[in-house]
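Most newcomers find our protein records easier to grasp once they have seen one. Read left to right, the backbone structure tokens trace the chain's path through space. Nothing more is needed to start thinking about how sequence determines fold. An example says more than a description, so a record of this kind follows:
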Amino acid sequence: MLNLAPGVRYKTRIDGSLLFFDTRSCRYVSVPSSVAGLLSQDGGGATSRRAVRSLAEALAGNGLLADPGQPGPVFSIPSPAPLEPPLDEAFLEVTRRCNLQCSHCYQQGNALPQQELGTQPLLELIDRLAESGILQLKLTGGEPLLRSDLPELISRARSHDIATRLYTNGLGVDPRKARCLAEAGLNEAQVSIDGLRDETYASIRRRGILAEATAGIAALREAGIAVILSFTVTEANVGDLPLLDDFVRTHRVQVCVSPYLDYRVLSCSRGPSRGEFPATDILTATLAAFTRLKPLWTRKTRLTQLLPPSWFSFCGAGVTSCYITCSGRVALCPLLQEGFEAGHIDDLKSAWERSPVFLRLRSTNVLDTPACGRCPHLVWCRGGCRARALIYGGDLLGPDPVCCWMHGRLTGAGEGRPQTWGVP
């Protein structure tokens, strides 16, 4: 009998593997489908007993087993998933309002409050997501902190043992607000700071000051919330990247650096027009930052990277995760909303299981894509970002050209070599 630590959940995933996930620390143990099958065998044969012992050692080594005498869930073979395939995580856009006007943001930030779901509908949605079996809820916007009920939403998710991550610009987060978020149960906060000098920050954000955002990071860390610093590289801030090293180490945060995605052409990228590929200096600087800061690089895609490289699943969009807009529409991801809607939250099961957009992704094997199927880096990137593949490559089910460029340089290969790029 395996007594799991409080907050640890487990579920069968799309590939038949078994995932144990600590919703407090976000640590996990993944059991391959072949071993998961042994755990369900009756009779307790020698092979089955060895599998249980190995699992117990792995769980204990990651702090996922209860201490002696500590109450916690007892492991039993999971029931069939409420949704097929299992839904592991969801982005929940709680607002499109924002207190900034960032020049590179994909959100318009002009949605009126009455266009947003109210507190009670959102609480009921979180309850339904809990019933669907999700392990993690990612609260995004706009700026989620503009909603006064945000701690209540976080608390509801945590009452279901769902891990939570907040996407924020960090403005207005003082020690009191950070403690309130921590008491509600917030696990992680991803704070976007796209300039490390006052003048760069001001030119991109158009409002706010860098010192206030930095103070927000410090308050979140002091409250015990893990922080990820997000930096989108553009021509306006590429010169600030050398300052990033000291910043992330001083503030003890993880980091995620990405080249700007030309989302503005998304509506026409389904036709002959495509986005302008990032300039070489931006890609080179991004790659250099990754090389220098690799030990501090976030592993936000860690759960999808546990899956075999059979799907386009860099972030799990449409395969293990979905995006829910502030008005309740179910879509593919934050960038792929218009034209990629799957339905409404009133019928989440139908939207997830029957959407042509989602089914198309799940029925396509990335190994059958020539550029990706023979790539040695496929295990990390799974074909890369679907939005970048569409915007820069013109094909939702094609390779991500930014990944190809990055990994080609990382391994010393030429630009034309079909390589890919992911977050290790």
About this structure: The chain has a mean pLDDT of 87. Residues 324 and 368 are 30 Å apart (CA to CA).
